[in-house]
Design a protein that fits this description.
CATH class of the largest domain: Alpha Beta
CATH topology of the largest domain: Cobalt-precorrin-4 Transmethylase, domain 1
CATH superfamily of the largest domain: Tetrapyrrole methylase, N-terminal domain
Order of helices and strands: EHEEHHEHEHEHEHEEEHHHHHHHHHHH
Distance between the termini: 85 Å
Strand order of the largest sheet: 3-2-4-1-5
Shape: elongated
Structural class: alpha/beta
Largest sheet: 5 strands, parallel
Number of strands: 10
Helix content: 40-55%
Number of helices: 18
């Protein structure tokens, strides 16, 4: 006994292959995944057609549909030879085919007869060469992503855009990668006399009144290289013999200072709430990340794919409440789980609760992280009054310090307690000081401006005179600024 799977092509009977027509003509019964296909009307009239459309109409999910179709075909295929016909090519967007072959393995012989898929007439409709890097996906699958796995530097063809509701979901997914105004093409009934191509912006695809089960979406590449792969190629080219002498001379250590500077510029853009600046600075930082990866790849330490695979695996492993069956009550619970899983991954007991705090962190940030870790094992004040008392104690000790060494030590202790106070107040000490620096700088620069406007030379002014300008600057900036 055997099952023969035949591709019906993308449209009317004229697109059937000769082999497919001969098999369909000789069959007594043809099982159709769906009768809602133009080629069905052109099939031989003497052949009995059995459609699975009723399964689609009653099942609660596509998974249930596929399971029932495969089960029915296997049951019939055990007793006699049967023929199963699907739209297009059996291996292009036909989930029942791959499931059927897997289920029939070593039990029932399965033969697949190719057919013209929706891809070829769709490419003809938009006049695109498939070998120019075309990506082909099922729109149903793509609509489920929060960030679709697409390369925006090459075009994409999405099949089975069967409804406006799916088009709406697909649009929401695609706008994570493409601008809302990106020009796209909806292709309807490709390869038939009713073929139609709609040119419209991405945001409008669910407004089309022509969408049906023969609709597909073509998304051209973005006009400027925009993928991580393209940037990685640019960096690799800069490092190549045909690239830039400066980039070629760099080492992981030589770029360390610039790396730190770029991270600080990202923080500056965040502090300024400057979205355009943040976009640019994140790009500069990403360049540094890829330079480090490229230099590592050149000496065969690791590749970009390994870096991405590592963090991808780690994120999913450490979020078992998202990609698993763990339950959490709040974000603190998430953090505790994270630390526990982290310790399990290391495979050894840490020598100290403070292990893992980078020495190169800014001093305030490192101090706060150290004190967070100490507090997790119970080394903490019972309430904030202890912190205020310790603050007064350290300030008193600073006042009586005599030598430069004592002053430095006591001032350090005082700063450490202030950071602890920030932790108790649930405030980030590093950000607080950055904002205070920014506030002082703006106010001081405004004071300088007021002095210049009035022909005053600040070094010659008394403290009382400077204070008048300072207060005026403060009032001009408004509030406590």
């Amino acid at each position: 006994m055997s099952i023969t799977i035949v591709g019906l092509g993308p449209g009317h009977g004229r697109t059937l292959t000769l082999e497919a027509w001969q098999l369909l003509s000789a069959a007594e019964t043809v099982y159709l995944r769906t009768a809602r296909h133009p080629a069905v009307a052109d099939l031989p009239t003497e052949v009995k057609l059995v459609s699975f459309d009723d399964v689609y109409d009653t099942a609660v999910s596509f998974e249930a549909v596929y399971e029932q179709i495969v089960e029915t075909l296997l049951e019939n295929g055990r007793d006699r030879d049967i023929l199963y016909a699907v739209p297009g090519h059996p291996f292009v967007g036909e989930s029942t085919v791959t499931r059927l072959i897997a289920a029939a393995e070593q039990q029932i012989a399965v033969r697949v007869v190719p057919g013209l898929s929706f891809v070829e007439p769709s490419l003809t409709a938009v006049k695109v060469d498939a070998l120019d890097g075309l990506q082909i996906f099922d729109a149903i699958d793509m609509a489920r992503f929060h960030y679709p796995p697409l390369n925006p530097d090459v075009p994409v063809l999405l099949g089975q855009v069967y409804s406006r509701m799916l088009a709406s979901e697909l649009k929401m997914a695609l706008t994570a990668v493409y601008p809302h105004q990106h020009p796209v093409s909806l292709i309807h009934a490709a390869g038939t006399a009713e073929e139609q191509v709609e040119l419209l912006p991405l945001y409008a695809i669910d407004h089309s009144l022509h969408i049906d089960h023969l609709s597909s979406l073509y998304v051209p590449a973005l006009p400027v290289a925009s993928s991580l792969m393209s940037l990685a190629e640019t960096v690799a080219h800069l490092r190549s013999p045909e690239g830039c002498p400066w980039d070629q001379e760099q080492t992981p250590q030589s770029m360390r200072a610039d790396f730190l500077e770029e991270m600080c510029e990202v923080l500056d853009a965040l502090d300024a709430d400057d979205s355009n600046g943040l976009q640019e600075e994140l790009g500069d930082l990403l360049y540094h990340v890829l330079m480090q990866v490229q230099m590592a790849a050149e000496v065969e330490d690791f590749a970009l794919t390994e870096v991405i695979a590592g963090i991808e695996t780690k994120l999913k492993r450490r979020h078992p409440h998202v990609w698993g069956d763990w339950e959490v009550t709040d974000s603190d619970h998430v953090v505790r789980n994270w630390e526990m899983l982290k310790k399990q991954e290391k495979g050894e007991k840490p020598a100290s609760a403070l292990d893992g705090v980078p020495v190169s962190l800014p001093a305030l940030a490192r101090s706060q992280k150290i004190q967070h870790k100490a507090a997790r094992v119970g080394f903490d004040w019972p309430d904030i009054t202890g912190v205020y008392a310790k603050l007064e104690e350290e300030l008193a000790e600073l006042k009586v310090a005599a030598t430069p060494e004592e002053l430095a030590e006591e001032l350090g202790d005082l700063l450490f307690v202030i950071v602890n106070l920030a932790r108790w107040l649930n405030v980030d000490a590093e950000s607080c000081l950055r904002e205070a620096n920014s506030k002082f700088s703006q106010r001081f620069q405004l004071t300088e401006q007021l002095a210049r406007q009035r022909g005053l030379h600040m070094p010659e002014m008394s403290l009382a005179e400077l204070d008048v300008l300072w207060e005026e600057a403060k009032g001009t900036m408004g509030g406590n600024r």
